[in-house]
């Protein structure tokens, strides 16, 4: 009997003993191709990137740990410099955390502290989006909207107002163009700000491309431009959460580059150190940084391990690979190939309603009936069946049940390490096809 408090104790977990590039090997010698980058986009460089392993070895040999409120370190300074050099416009400072949830929490705390510092303490409300995920601490659960994870905590979560997500497949009406749809859902932000009282709202938070709750869902063109216009009009800070979709995953360094917007805060985690060390970050603009520095002089958040030098050393090595010659071009090319293969395999599939995504972050949405978009009944637990069938065939993928305004549906997220080859893509799509077909048969 395991004494570990596993998050999903009912799941029969294989014991991972080794990683080799795109593969994970368990104790019994079974090989799994990693279609989910080590769990939610983390291992973007696969499991054997020597330059990162070496950087960790070298740094850990120098010192174990210094508190970043007492010392800075060369890796900490260098990593911040790398991240800010090619950041979206205006993002000049980086605060380090140990996870994506902490990065989100830090952004919310900084937004609040900023308004307190500049003498607008009445600005305390955050607006988020339904069907979003921003992490599992109480702040991140409050601003996010993954209903099943929020349920036991609803009564102790912060009061956050949630507007519609930008989810074209489910949200666009037939009478609307894509552009009209994007403007309509973005304009919900303005209505929410006006309803709550413009000078009481401090921030709006959104994933640039969603990753978990409703699968990989990119915004429609123009959506974030309108969101940014609205935020600027009412002095509301924009937090873009790129914990899942940032740092190369979508084919550009930052997903928001493709939407032509620069936020006030940008959060990262998974892609920073590619899972070789735990680390997250909140990037912030000079206006917010200076208000805190020239105000109370201290950010009141922060964590003991913020800016851990070994994690920073791993992250520097990862960031150098991501920015190396041809790397992002490889992501774009293989991302296009993944999209093409998914469309070939599932484009006419009777139980696939939508294939969407951006770069190396794709989703297949399952439906019982393509013409009505009706999902499988939640009691069928199709996602678990797909997950188990894939795992049995040696494919790690992420099948999940998402909730949006009462609708529950099944999605598979495909986001392999960014080093994926065209042969790997063929294998992933083939095994996924078998897993979905078998699951659908079981569900009937
Ligand atoms: N934000 C987004 C968009 C995420 O997808 C996640 C995790 O999946 C988080 C935040 C939380 O990150 P972590 O699990 O590292 O705390």
UniProtKB/TrEMBL annotation:
InterPro entries listed in its UniProt record? Aminotrans_3, Aminotrans_3_PPA_site, PyrdxlP-dep_Trfase, PyrdxlP-dep_Trfase_major, PyrdxlP-dep_Trfase_small
Keywords, A to Z, come to: Aminotransferase, Pyridoxal phosphate, Transferase
Q: Which family does it belong to?
A: Belongs to the class-III pyridoxal-phosphate-dependent aminotransferase family.
Q: Which cofactor does it need?
A: pyridoxal 5'-phosphate
- Matches recorded under Pfam families: Aminotran_3 (PF00202)
Q: Kindly give the SUPFAM superfamilies that the UniProt entry links to this protein.
A: PLP-dependent transferases
| Top-level taxon of origin | Bacteria
**Under what name is this protein listed?**
Aspartate aminotransferase family protein
* PROSITE patterns per record: AA_TRANSFER_CLASS_3
Gene3D superfamilies attached to this UniProt entry: Aspartate Aminotransferase, domain 1 (3.90.1150.10), Type I PLP-dependent aspartate aminotransferase-like (Major domain) (3.40.640.10)
- Top-level taxonomy: Bacteria, Pseudomonadati, Pseudomonadota, Alphaproteobacteria, Hyphomicrobiales
| A GO term from the CC aspect | cytosol
Instruction: Please list the GO terms describing molecular function.
Output: pyridoxal phosphate binding; transaminase activity
